[in-house]
Write a structure and sequence with these properties.
Elements: H1 2-14, E1 23-29, E2 35-41, E3 49-53, H2 72-82, E4 86-90, H3 93-100, H4 109-124, E5 130-135, H5 137-145, E6 152-156, H6 163-174, H7 179-190, H8 203-206, H9 211-217, H10 222-227, E7 233-238, H11 246-255, E8 259-264, H12 278-283, H13 294-305
Parallel strand pairs: 3-4, 3-5, 5-6, 6-7, 7-8
Antiparallel strand pairs: 1-2, 2-4
Helix pairs in contact: 4-5, 6-7
């Protein structure tokens, strides 16, 4: 009985509103892989729900990694929930595995899609309107998960080309002497095979352990997936994004049947505005004090309220 009351009090505390916030925050466990934070607006019984899907790497529910804290996804979620929209953001399964030291070396790109679909399933009976919002790699994951049942889609700094095309372009700019070898490796992976013969300077993306994941990832073409979508879609990108160019956003927009495009001047990949050079741009990846541009929050809110 004593433990029961402790659990009850803990649950109530986790769901209590904070002074100055118009929502309550609740920690939720969807399944063994998915843990996240649900923000529920105060006094709103029928509200849309935005499900955020994080980008590449071991990214948590707030948009952070071990040595990269900017709270990007948390800031957007808080902004929307303060404006009457419920939000749920969750840790990628690799985050939990790192914390518990149970890393699955055979994790696949499709595992992230499975997690996104499971999250949609979890909330379908609770919310009539569900919007999937994917950032960077999460945009592609979100596109693949839409078939599970979503009312709308938001792409935040999402790519329009398959990952192998993007890697080729990046390598041609940063390490052109490795381009031909890289093309050979990428072709091998796309054929469903692995290889020990890869450029060692690019081991971070080509080592044997990660090759199956990359091969799985490059099977998907964001533009082809977007062409199949009839639901309302909002595509947001910034012209100071060092990782995903605004041309990628344009490709998604041109493929969308029911799309809206927002290009934000001076905004970078972690959705903050940069007035200076590339050094300032990179520093922002590990800065929590910068705010999400007002036009991003406003356009998302307007888009959701119009559904």
């Amino acid at each position: 009985m004593k433990n029961f009351f402790k659990s009850l009090i803990f649950g109530l505390l986790c769901s209590m509103p904070v002074l100055g916030q118009n929502f309550t925050a609740t920690e939720l466990v969807v399944n063994q892989h998915i843990e996240g934070t649900l923000l529920t607006p105060l006094g709103s019984e029928t509200t849309p729900l935005v499900i955020f899907i994080a980008g590449s790497g071991p990214t948590d529910r707030d948009g952070n990694q071990s040595f990269m804290k900017n709270d990007m996804l948390k800031k957007i979620a808080v902004s929307l929930s303060n404006s009457g929209i419920a939000t749920f953001r969750y840790d990628k399964r690799i985050v939990k595995q790192i914390r518990t030291r149970t890393i699955d070396k055979n994790i696949s790109f499709d595992d992230f899609v499975t997690d996104a679909k499971s999250t949609i399933d979890f909330f379908k009976s609770k919310y009539e309107t569900i919007i999937v919002a994917g950032h960077s790699q999460g945009s592609l994951v979100g596109l693949l998960a839409l078939e599970q049942g979503a009312s709308a889609f938001i792409s935040l700094a999402g790519a329009g080309k398959p990952i192998d095309r993007i890697l080729e372009e990046q390598i041609s700019k940063t390490a052109p002497m490795l381009l031909e070898d890289s093309k050979r490796v990428l072709a091998t992976l796309k054929a469903g095979k692995t290889t020990k013969d890869y450029p060692m300077p690019l081991a971070a993306i080509f080592n044997l352990e990660i090759q199956p994941f990359m091969a799985n990832w490059m099977q998907y073409n964001p533009v082809e997936l977007m062409k199949k979508q009839e639901i309302p879609t909002l595509i947001i990108s910034g012209d100071k994004d060092l990782q995903v160019s605004i041309e990628e956003a344009q490709l998604l927009f041109e493929a969308a049947q029911n799309g809206t495009l927002l290009i934000v001047k001076n905004m970078n990949h972690v959705l903050v505005k940069i007035e200076g050079d590339d050094l300032e741009n990179m520093k922002s990846y590990n800065t929590t004090t910068l705010q999400i541009p007002e036009e991003v929050s406003r356009s998302m809110l307007d888009f959701i309220n119009a559904l």
